[in-house]
Amino acid sequence: MGSIYKRLLRHPLRLAAALAPALLSPARVKGIVEVLFASGHGGAGGNGDGPPLPRHELFSIVVASDQRRRGVAERLYRRLCAGFRDRGVTSFRILVGKQLDAANRFYHRMGARPVTEVQLHEGAVSTIYVQDLNDESRPRSASIRSAGEVN
Ligand SMILES: CC(C)(COP(=O)(O)OP(=O)(O)OC[C@H]1O[C@@H](n2cnc3c(N)ncnc32)[C@H](O)[C@@H]1OP(=O)(O)O)[C@@H](O)C(=O)NCCC(=O)NCCS
Question: Which residue range or ranges hold the N-acetyltransferase domain (predicted)?
Answer without folding.
Answer: 1-134
